[in-house]
Design a protein that fits this description.
- This protein has 13 helices and no strands.
- It is mainly α.
- α7 packs across α8, α11 crosses α13 and α12 crosses α13.
């Protein structure tokens, strides 16, 4: 059944490509007329004619990206998305041919698709990294000593200068492009365990989780009881100064309480001393207050 579906998909793709290549090209005046009708009147017929005429650009661009091992049909679909974006954003008054404008959007959409799907590891995010990904093979062929030969330091430096990136980025991308994704379920050898069985589990064991939860609850109870011995104003100062993620300033608390920032500092120091004494009365050992280093 899967084989039949594949043949049907291939026939549909071939039919689409053939029909796209037979669509007539548009003159500059016709492009602008269709674009204006779509932008000002929402004329869908004009949009369809404009897009249909330049689907051949999508086909041609997809053919150039086939070397990345992705299905031609998927590349064409992504290119069509880029073509539709170009039609939605095209401004006829700028006096640029729609084909020139659309080519950039089509290529950008396919590049993003390749970067998302070429590897399970994210390959490039910045414009410079994308340029490196799509140009490294071509430049590598010019500077390498032979097919499959490793890049020399001089070669990496020449590529880095050409693409305006760091030499380290060239080295990293070269390693990525010459490697393939490996499954953690792949066997190390005949009769041996999988790769994933050699990975260390660095998470805490269930006993440590339970003990950590118990100790955390106990420390929270000690702190709540100690805070209960402070006055309402002292609790507010400690809460907003020491127990809040933002951490209020002395000036802010002074304005809110109607006192000087120096008075806030004095009250804070007094409250901290009270807390220390209260915690000492409750905690059997001082070390119980601290989390163990993991």
């Amino acid at each position: 059944m899967g084989h039949i579906d594949d043949l049907s998909t291939q026939r549909a793709n071939l039919g689409f490509i053939k029909a796209s290549m037979q669509a007539p090209l548009l003159s500059r005046d016709r492009e602008f007329e269709l674009a204006r009708r779509w932008r000002s009147q929402g004329d869908e017929a004009a949009l369809h004619e404009l897009v249909r005429a330049y689907t051949r650009l999508v086909i041609a661009t997809a053919a150039r990206f086939r070397s990345y091992g992705l299905p031609m049909g998927d590349l064409v679909q992504e290119g069509n998305v880029g073509l539709m974006q170009a039609a939605a954003r095209f401004e006829p008054e700028r006096d640029v041919r729609f084909s020139t404008y659309a080519a950039w959007w089509i290529r950008s959409a396919m590049q993003d698709y390749v970067l998302r799907n070429w590897s399970i590891v994210r390959t490039g995010t910045t414009a410079a990294q994308k340029s490196l990904f799509f140009n490294l093979r071509r430049l590598r062929a010019h500077v390498a000593e032979g097919p499959g030969a490793p890049l020399s330091e001089t070669g990496r430096r020449r590529i880095a200068e050409a693409l305006k990136v760091d030499v380290a980025e060239v080295e990293t991308m070269d390693l990525r492009l010459n490697a393939t994704d490996q499954s953690l379920n792949a066997s190390i050898g005949e009769g041996h365990e999988d790769w994933q069985e050699l990975l260390a589990d660095r998470r805490p064991n269930p006993e440590d989780v339970v003990m950590g939860s118990h100790d955390g609850a106990r420390r929270s109870r000690w702190l709540a009881e100690a805070l209960g011995e402070l006055s309402p104003r002292e609790r507010r100062i400690i809460g907003e100064r020491r127990l809040s993620e933002a951490g209020a300033t002395l000036e802010e608390l002074g304005r809110a309480l109607g006192i000087s920032k120096e008075r806030v500092r004095q009250l804070e120091n007094r409250a901290l001393l009270k807390l220390r004494d209260a915690m000492r009365r409750r905690v059997p050992r001082q070390s119980d207050l601290f989390l163990e280093a993991g």
